[in-house]
């Protein structure tokens, strides 16, 4: 069963981390789904771990500010009405709601031990 390989459009790779994976669709509407419309244009693939046709994974998307391709991992990007890569979020942090600022600050303190 090599469905994923057969239908892959290319390989998605994140510009911030090493994550890369074949993707089978790009856009707001995953194929073989009826009611699902995503909030953003994104790279995705059918969920290889699910037998259901309508299950899919979102791999990543483009940052709306710098157009970098970033994965949806919380270390690389966040979604707040649009997709932002974390470097852009940090640059514009004061424009984000307090909840997101707090989340990032918490993240920073977690990473401190390795990067400081
Ligand atoms: Zn990433
Ligand atoms: Zn960006």
Automatic annotation (TrEMBL):
Location of the Cysteine-rich DPF motif domain: 12-104
Sections of the chain in a coiled coil: none
One Pfam entry name: C6_DPF
UniProt superkingdom: Eukaryota
Cross-referenced InterPro entries: CDPF1 (IPR042426), CDPF1_dom (IPR018785)
Similarity comment: family membership: Belongs to the CDPF1 family.
PANTHER family the UniProt entry points to: CYSTEINE-RICH DPF MOTIF DOMAIN-CONTAINING PROTEIN 1, CYSTEINE-RICH PDF MOTIF DOMAIN-CONTAINING PROTEIN 1
Protein name: Cysteine-rich DPF motif domain-containing protein 1
């Amino acid at each position: 069963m090599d469905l994923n390989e057969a239908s892959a459009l290319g390989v998605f790779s994140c510009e911030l981390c090493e994550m890369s994976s074949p993707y089978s669709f790009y856009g707001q509407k995953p194929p073989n789904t009826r009611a699902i419309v995503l909030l953003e244009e994104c790279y995705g693939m059918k969920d290889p771990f699910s037998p259901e046709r309508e299950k899919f994974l979102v791999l990543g998307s483009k940052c709306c500010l710098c157009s970098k391709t970033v994965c949806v991992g919380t270390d690389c990007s966040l979604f707040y009405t649009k997709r932002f890569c974390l470097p852009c979020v940090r640059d514009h942090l004061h424009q984000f709601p307090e909840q997101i600022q707090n989340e990032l600050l918490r993240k920073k303190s977690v990473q401190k031990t390795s990067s400081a």
